[in-house]
Amino acid sequence: MKFVPFALGALFLATPCLAESEATFEKIKIDAGAALYDAECRRCHASDTAHDSYGPPLENVIGRGAGTYPDYDYSIALEASGIVWTPAALRAWMEDNSGFMPGTKMRHVGIEDRTVQDFILAYLASISDRDPSKISE
Ligand code: HEC
């Protein structure tokens, strides 16, 4: 039974490290997502509502009803869709927005790589108040 205290001690020592590396991974994902957002989305989407934007601003888009940003002139297809921007809906949108929603006026994007989607989602979550894990995956 000598090993038990040792094992417990090791567990306590390991825990802060784990939490630390998770925080590091999360930060790397957000940074990568920000760079991808700059390359693929920012020319049309401001990330904060204080800036003019050709497309609707994506601040707080996680968990938002589609087509509900006030004063934005959406296509009828998007405004009438009744969907909520869950992480799963955002993946489908990034993968093939015009296939997912025929009639949208957003130019086609085709981001099929799940890792790239993960990074962009991490960035979108970082500019949203709602926690995506409490919405759905
Ligand atoms: C060429 C410009 C352009 C690019 C690039 C672009 N979008 Fe869009 N996006 C739009 C427009 C315009 C709309 C409004 C579509 C409509 O009303 O049908 C839109 C709508 C959206 C919506 C719906 C928001 C809401 O309020 O319901 C999301 C989510 C979105 N885009 C995400 C993205 C992401 C993520 C990227 C980058 C991977 C991206 N878009 C790239 C122009 C663009």
TrEMBL record:
Example GO molecular function: heme binding
Signal sequence residues: 1-19
Coiled coil is among the record's keywords: no
Keyword Metal-binding found: yes
Keywords: Electron transport, Heme, Iron, Metal-binding, Signal, Transport
Membrane-spanning residues: none
UniProt superkingdom: Bacteria
Annotated Cytochrome c domain residues: 28-128
Pfam families named in the record: Cytochrom_C
Protein name: Cytochrome c
